[in-house]
Amino acid sequence: MALVLLICQPSTAQEQRFSFTVSKMGSPFTIVLFAGDSLKAKDIVQRCFALTDSLVAILSDYIDSSELNRLCARAGKGEWFFCSPVLYEILAQSRFAYDKSMGSFDITLGPLTRLWRKARKEQRFPAAVEVMEKKAMTGFSKIQFDTTRHAVRLLQTGMQLDLGGIGQGYIAQKVIDYLKNQRTENALVDVSGDIVCIGAPPGKKGWTVAINLPNNEHDLLPQQLHISNQAVTTSGDLFQYMEHGGKRYSHIIDPATGYGITSQKNVTVIAADGIMADWLTKACSILPVKKAKLLAESLHASVLITTIKKGKLVYYMSKGCKKYWAQ
């Protein structure tokens, strides 16, 4: 895998800005950091990418041999699966997210996400009976946890867990945590739009993050965000959607219906860590705006929801969101 290193002009006498981008999980994975020399920067980033590969091997539902898929292969057999610390941690975080989001974030939607993934690829809208059959295999109550032994079992045959709504934020956070432990003070990790940062570029108050307009690949919101020691994620249906019967179905599936949501909007969440920012964007995309704002505020996070109504850009923001606008 090629490693791209971009060296910018020194921002201070001691440190330079380095940017590395590779392809991970089928999407761009970027690490930006400030370091004293290129050899040090390249070494630490290589270790970050190795860490990423080890996490993907545990959490991916695309890799048959992943620990996640080995757990799912035992679904319905009544067997306890003894999880690695990584897998158990993200499953426990997913249970927290499910409870806090009133069930709007649910990692048991794997049978449905696979159905809709195939449907988008083949451009064939699934029959209602197919959706209902896959939906019957879902439900967080069908996961049992043994907190003492860090073991999990899936109670129904055919269950498939999908960590796509939390895994990228989890990986971005783990990479930032590693950089912190290596005494890197100013860095940003961008896992296909799941962004986590520490510090800020020298001389700046924070990292500048731009947000796309709803359903627009090229145009950006007139405002930008400034964040430091935080995470930001935006969800929408810009790239992953399916059109049928005059409706546009997002890749974000509503657990209550089994279908992708049809409200065309972008949801941006700013939170203390990448894990929460990732799953909160999915939950806030499904929940009504009022409940989405209350959920974010209850977790000391901020949510910005943008949509187009009658050709005009409309904003919905939780309390405190405006403080992140770049001045």
Task: Describe this protein's structure.
- The chain is α+β, with helices and mostly antiparallel strands and 327 residues long.
- The chain contains eight helices and 16 strands.
- The strands form four sheets. It has a nine-stranded antiparallel sheet with strand order 1-2-3-7-8-11-14-15-16. It has a three-stranded antiparallel sheet with strand order 4-6-5, with no helix packed on it.
- It is globular.
What is the helical fraction, as a range of percent? 25-40%
The dominant shape is globular
DSSP, total strands: 16
Task: Characterize the largest beta sheet: strand count, sense, and whether it forms a barrel.
Answer: 9 strands, antiparallel
List the helices and strands and how they pair.
Blueprint: E1 4-7, E2 16-24, E3 27-35, H1 38-59, H2 67-72, E4 81-82, H3 85-100, H4 110-122, H5 128-135, E5 143-146, E6 151-154, H6 167-181, E7 187-191, E8 194-198, E9 207-209, E10 225-227, E11 231-235, E12 241-244, E13 247-250, E14 265-271, H7 274-286, H8 289-298, E15 302-309, E16 312-317
Helix pairs in contact: 1-6, 6-7, 7-8
